[in-house]
């Protein structure tokens, strides 16, 4: 998979993609992540990418020209399955969306900034709008990092034990069961006996029961499909 990210602050994305699973996925050739600075496509000598909004609203707006130029350049090089705009008023991001995106070959992600982007970008240049929650960030870079991390980690080959990702929370609209490791007892707190029994059939039943109970208690909306 190839992911191209368009941003006015590429420095914010250096660390998230330089460590752990995402770094290894790139080293293995499982994923390519390319970060593009929108400022490089501004035409004036000051590399201006924002301007005041029509109508007198407070806040600056990302201009359409440099974004259009960059998107058209990338589209001329390959076909993109989705051109995603990260925005608080987009569709709610969840594990099902991550699973869907992980099956794609080429993704482009546009990070909003300032007050937002010229709405013509959203109307004519992007294909999907995604929100990571009902709150506002200073820009879309951290939100884009969340999407990239959650998508890349479930691409086959990204993690050593691929079955591990299948038992993550939200894969079946359930929270995951509790997990434990050595020592079996610490400070008087014991690991459930069933997990030490070696009876994997019964362990699987316990894990399913725990997942259902935790979901009903902590996130009942998932059981009701909300």
Description of the molecule:
The structure is a single chain. By secondary structure, the protein is α/β, with parallel strands linked by helices. It has a five-stranded parallel β-sheet with strand order 2-1-6-5-8, with helices on one face. Strands 3-4-7 form a three-stranded mixed β-sheet. The chain has a two-stranded antiparallel sheet with strand order 9-10. The protein is elongated and about 70 Å long. The model has no long low-confidence stretch (mean pLDDT 94). It has helices at 20-28, 64-77, 95-101, 119-124, 141-152, 162-166, 200-218, 220-223; strands at residues 2-7, 32-37, 50-52, 60-62, 82-92, 106-111, 116-117, 128-131, 185-186, 189-190.
List keywords for this structure.
226 residues; alpha/beta; Alpha/beta knot; Trp Operon Repressor, Chain A; 2 domains; 5-stranded parallel beta sheet; 3-stranded mixed beta sheet; 10 strands; 34% helix; 20% strand
């Amino acid at each position: 998979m190839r992911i191209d990210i368009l941003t006015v602050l590429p420095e914010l994305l250096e660390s998230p993609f330089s460590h752990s699973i995402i770094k290894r996925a790139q080293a293995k050739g499982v994923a390519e992540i390319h970060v593009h600075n929108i400022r490089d496509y501004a035409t004036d000598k000051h590399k201006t990418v924002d301007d005041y909004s029509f109508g007198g609203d407070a806040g600056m707006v990302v201009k359409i020209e440099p974004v259009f130029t960059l998107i058209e350049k990338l589209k001329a090089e390959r076909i993109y399955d989705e051109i995603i705009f990260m925005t608080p008023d987009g569709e709610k991001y969840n594990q099902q969306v991550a699973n869907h995106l992980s099956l794609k070959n080429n993704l482009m992600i546009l990070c909003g900034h300032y007050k937002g982007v010229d709405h013509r970008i959203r109307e004519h240049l992007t294909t999907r709008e995604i929100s990571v929650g009902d709150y506002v960030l200073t820009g879309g870079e951290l939100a884009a990092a969340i999407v990239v991390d959650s998508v890349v980690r479930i691409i086959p080959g990204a993690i050593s034990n691929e079955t591990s990702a299948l038992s993550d929370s939200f894969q079946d609209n359930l929270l995951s069961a509790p997990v434990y490791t050595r020592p079996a007892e610490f400070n008087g707190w014991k690991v459930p006996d069933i997990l030490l029994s070696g009876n994997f059939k019964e362990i699987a039943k316990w894990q399913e029961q725990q997942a259902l109970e935790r979901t009903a208690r902590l996130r009942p909306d998932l059981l009701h499909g909300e």
